[in-house]
Amino acid sequence: MEISAPSPHCAQDHICWGAHASHPERHRLDVENVTVYYGRLLALHDIGFSITCGHTLALMGPNGAGKSTLIKALAGLIHPDAGNILWNGNPLHDMPREIAYLPQRSDVDWSFPITVRALVEMGRYPALGLWKKFSGHDREIVEKSLHVLGLEHLAERQISELSGGQQQRAFLARALAQEAHVLLLDEPFTGLDAPACQSLGRLLDSLAGEGRLVIASHHDLNTAAEIFDTVLLMNRDLVAFGPAQEVLSPERIRETYGMNA
Ligand SMILES: Nc1ncnc2c1ncn2[C@@H]1O[C@H](COP(=O)(O)OP(=O)(O)OP(=O)(O)O)[C@@H](O)[C@H]1O
């Protein structure tokens, strides 16, 4: 199953980054027959799909369906027991700078003493030379990332002092500073109120519009088609993959979640 990119676009309340905007369809993720075991437990079975930059993809399924496992496999944190994960035809994990990973909120130590600016600067580390010295270009990218996420006024604050929505934005700013094409977000909407969800949804949409590929695990069937253009329904196996409105049919939801839509 394959999805190619829509035309690039930018949300009005968001500044275009530019560097990724041209020809997003040239960058393509192919997930081929990926299977993952934890010991004897089969967590993912023969998952396959293809998608290009320019899309927002929701991974959806019941608890234990394997959504986080798939995100971790894409992020290179878990090595599949079978299958391939390719970026433009080459193993994705050979290009770690292309991947930015936002773990589940519960997996982050929010009390860790670090300012928003220092967190965003971490996004530049993979690109720094041998002496780990920040160039003017690196500083410019950090400032731009803070600006795009509306975090300038919070730059010197500790991340522990931020709201949940601001913390998500700080981590996304780090991902922007990395200039990765693939953003992997594990349940980014968890714990956010409705306005923060809407704001994050618009942001993900505009990041895709600028030529990135946004992949996130998501639980809310009611908001999925508003936020994401593409949905992958899974329950250890792939149930359906394609445009959100088509995939989220009552029959498919029943098949995946075992309940009435
Ligand atoms: N580190 C691990 N060791 C052993 N089993 C694991 C591990 N991580 C996850 N699992 C198991 O793998 C299966 C898939 O888990 P995963 O966390 O990927 O599902 P999920 O769809 O993200 O679930 P949720 O919606 O509850 O977050 C589950 O049965 C889970 O118990």
From TrEMBL:
Record-linked CDD domains: ABC_Metallic_Cations
Entry-linked InterPro entries: AAA+_ATPase (IPR003593), ABC_transporter-like_ATP-bd (IPR003439), ABC_transporter-like_CS (IPR017871), Metal_Ion_Import_ABC (IPR050153), P-loop_NTPase (IPR027417)
ABC transporter domain ranges (all copies): 29-261
Matching Pfam families: ABC_tran (PF00005)
Annotated keywords: ATP-binding, Nucleotide-binding, Transport
Source organism, top-level taxon: Bacteria
Entry similarity comment: Belongs to the ABC transporter superfamily.
Protein's recorded name: ABC transporter
Provenance organism: Akkermansia biwaensis
